[in-house]
Amino acid sequence: MKIFFCLRRVLRFIIRGLPAGVSQETDKRPMAASIPEYPWFGVVDGDGIEQGDIFEKCPVFLPPDTLAVTAEGKPANADFTWQERDLIVMSQSCDLVKGREKLDEIVFCAVWIRSEMTDQPLARVEILEDARKGRLPNVHLIAPSICAGFEREVRIVDFRRVYSLPVQYVRNRATLSKRLRLLPPYREHLSQSFARFFMRVGLPIDIPPFTGKNK
């Protein structure tokens, strides 16, 4: 008899897809209810800086194209211009621990909002979709922010525009206001894309495409 009841329980599990003792009402719950959410952003303040922190309207300094250099290789006096740009921290968080910094300057990449790309290829939906799928190595998309007070549209990280600013300057600026921070695993995904952009290798002779006679 015990064997009979055990077999019946096993058959009920297979046929109904439910373990013994679980009601049909439990089975009707949406599958998504058991899937944890992974928020893209958090809102932080203070001078603790991590990879993925976004500093909006941060000044970057641009040397003039005609910057002269002396015979000794030293630049002559020149006027630098500056612009306000949205930047995202690309330096590793472990190198930015306060009091134990392993660098003097923080590396940033420029961040553009989608609506700014009106006269760029990324204004086209099909090109933006290629970027979303990771087919454009020079850019990386991050999702819109729905954080209260920090609602933002889709943004494009531009790996071709890299800047650096002194650590202490950035810490001082970080204390002025709150900011968005890109959270794991999206932060690591961004870092991976950045590394992939710089590690590209162009081959002198590539394998021919597998089309036509080369199939």
Q: What's the tally of helices?
A: 5
SSE order, as H and E? HHEEEEHEEHEH
Which CATH class of the domain at 45-63 and 80-198? Mainly Beta
Q: How much is the radius of gyration in Å? A: 26 Å
Give the topology.
Layout (H helix, E strand, L loop, with lengths): L1 H15 L7 H4 L13 E4 L9 E9 L18 E9 L15 E9 L11 H8 L6 E4 L12 E12 H8 L4 E4 L3 H13 L17
Antiparallel strand pairs: 1-7, 2-3, 3-4, 4-6, 5-6
Describe the structure concisely.
By secondary structure, the chain is α+β, with helices and mostly antiparallel strands. The chain is built from 5 helices and 7 strands, in the order ααββββαββαβα. The protein has a domain at 45-63 and 80-198: Roll (SH3 type barrels), CATH 2.30.30.110.
Overview of the molecule:
This protein has 215 residues and is an alpha+beta fold. It has a domain at 45-63 and 80-198: SH3 type barrels (Roll). The protein contains five helices and seven strands, in the order ααββββαββαβα. It has helices at residues 2-16, 24-27, 125-132, 167-174, 186-198, and strands spanning 41-44, 54-62, 81-89, 105-113, 139-142, 155-166, 179-182. The strands form two sheets. A five-stranded antiparallel β-sheet has the order 2-3-4-6-5, covered by helices on one side.
Give structural attributes.
215 residues; alpha+beta; SH3 type barrels; 5-stranded antiparallel beta sheet; two-stranded antiparallel ribbon; 5 helices; globular; disordered N terminus
